[in-house]
Amino acid sequence: MSHCIETVAKNEYERVLAILLRAREEDRELEDTLELLRLFLESADFGSLRGACDDLLLSGRRVRVRLRSTEGVPEYEIVTEG
């Protein structure tokens, strides 16, 4: 399955939010994940990110984007497989 990184991030944000809303108790790790995704969605240059991944995808590589929490805007790295 392949989707635009922005779509994947939005879907993951909605998935985590739904889990948190159904939870009976706090889950600090999921809350942190939700905040990381929110900041990524608000700050990422998705045009540049897609551009950086396009050549890799066209060459048949599998691409993952790893997010890292920071004091401000999340950092990310593009990781390829294959």
**Form type:** elongated
Beta strand count: 2
Question: How are the strands of the biggest sheet laid out side by side?
Answer: 1-2
What's the average pLDDT? 90
- What share of the residues does DSSP label as strand, in percent? 15-25%
Largest beta-sheet characterization: 2 strands, antiparallel
Work out the radius of gyration. Answer: 14 Å
Q: How many helices in DSSP terms?
A: 3
Description:
- The chain has 82 residues and is α+β, with helices and mostly antiparallel strands.
- The chain has one domain (5-81).
- Helix content is 57%, strand content 17%.
- It has 3 helices and 2 strands.
- It has a two-stranded antiparallel ribbon.
- A hairpin with a 6-residue loop joins strand 1 (62-68) and strand 2 (75-81).
- Helix 1 (5-22) packs antiparallel against helix 2 (28-43).
- It starts with a helix and ends with a strand.
